[in-house]
Amino acid sequence: MIGQNATRDHALTVHRGADRFATRTSWLDSRHCFSFGAHYEPTNTGHGRLLVSNDDIVLPGAGFDTHPHADAEIVTWVLSGSLVHQDSQGNHGVIYPGLAQRMSAGAGILHSERNDAYRLDPDRAADPVHFVQMWVRPDEPGTPPSYQQRELEVADLRRGWLPVASGRHSDAVISIGSRGSTLWVTRLGADVRRELPVGDTVHLYVAAGEVDGEEVGRLRTGDSVRITGRTALSITGRAGSEPAEVLVWEMAR
């Protein structure tokens, strides 16, 4: 079910998690905010420069085998478990909560993402990996592919909005090739209130927990809000819920 609200200055649409496209296999549970793969809706192909936002759960010993990408800034944010990345440029790494990762596909790259970290490290449990993967349109097509991963201070997420990936904030954890785009992440406990980052186009995704959103009411895990037009809105963590983890893309026109 989709709710809409509009004023003279901005418009916003709430998309409920239960209404998202879903791809399910024997090893994958993937839920898509926008058209993806076999799921196509001509009026739902992205929001601003954000083209893909998938919430994926992959079972141990499985994953996405080698496949191609081009002209996308691909940011992966792990919520639990760990994910192994390998690509045709020789980059490889294990992605886990508290580490930000970006792959710029550029002129073309092959990569794989698998839940195999427990085979590389005996201290890692063979648990499902849960992550959100987001694709942003780059400013320039056909650039050389590149890769970046970097740890962050998880405690900073509880203090406010942390710029995790950005094309303009020099203090962001990782950089992306979209000058007007920033991924902000925060964690909110009960009754903690935060103003949303203000941009020409904003996409809010509740990755965990529940919040109360100004003008939109209660938002649960998997819900998203699309905002067009610059406006100052706030969200507040709900009592009785797990701490909320919220991902916000703030994008220039």
Describe what you observe in this structure.
By secondary structure, the protein is mostly beta strands. Helix content is 4%, strand content 50%. The protein is built from 2 helices and 23 strands. The strands form 4 sheets. The protein has an 8-stranded mixed β-sheet. Strand 1 and strand 2 (11-15) form a beta hairpin. The protein is globular and about 45 Å long. The model has no long low-confidence stretch (mean pLDDT 95).
Relevant terms:
single chain; 253 residues; mainly beta; Jelly Rolls; seven-stranded antiparallel beta sheet; 2 helices; globular
Topology:
Layout: E1 2-6, E2 11-15, E3 21-24, E4 28-32, E5 50-58, E6 63-69, E7 73-80, E8 83-87, E9 92-95, E10 99-104, E11 109-114, H1 117-120, E12 129-136, E13 146-151, H2 154-159, E14 162-166, E15 174-175, E16 181-188, E17 193-195, E18 201-208, E19 211-213, E20 217-219, E21 224-228, E22 234-237, E23 244-251
Parallel strand pairs: 14-15
Antiparallel strand pairs: 1-2, 2-21, 3-4, 4-5, 5-12, 6-11, 7-10, 7-12, 8-9, 8-11, 10-13, 14-16, 16-23, 17-22, 18-21, 18-23, 19-20, 19-22
